[in-house]
Design goal:
Structural class: mainly alpha
Largest sheet: 2 strands, parallel
Radius of gyration: 24 Å
Number of domains: 2
Low-confidence stretches: 1-6
Mean pLDDT: 86
Number of strands: 4
Distance between the termini: 24 Å
Length: 206
Amino acid sequence: MRFPWATYLAVYTKSRRAAERVLESCKQYLEKKLKLKVNSEKSKAGSPLKLKFLGFALYRTGKGTGIRVHEKSMKKFKEKLKGITKRNRGRAIQQILKELKLYTTGWLNYYAIAGMKSRIQELNRWLKRRIRMYIWKQWKKPKTRIGNLIALGMSVYWAHKNGYTGKGYWRVAGSGILNHTLTDKYLESLGYDDIAKKYEVLHLNY
């Protein structure tokens, strides 16, 4: 609850009924006594484990309560990453990685206090697969793919075999064709800022 510029309320109690009573009481006080307008649509009451507040939510741990990123905030984050790495954008991969770094740095700086190690590691694997898919799409023709695969260490035989593969973009991106050539180290050399590593460093500083 904020004063004197409060526009919404967030009330946390053990039961929803109690929370609603407290919410209504606070609203009456703010509007009648302090002459402030409360935004009823944004005001919330209930269990703190079910409420979203500034993009965060709470969860139970063996030691008590922890902070996590709310599911809606995590979904929005993933959708943004998906948009940046959309395979038909037609931009150089370095520009795509620069956009990713700019966006993920700001997001992680804000949410790094939350416990999400396994979630961010899973998202990191998914994002690197998206990047590999983007690069594979840019190579387009079999001749270009063959040349790049050989340059990245694949044998001539397997480069030709894989260069003419009929597998879809997403399937290739998750296969050994690119996992063994467009390695994590290679992606980082192009400018990928590993979000799992960045999160770990930022989270430890809280």
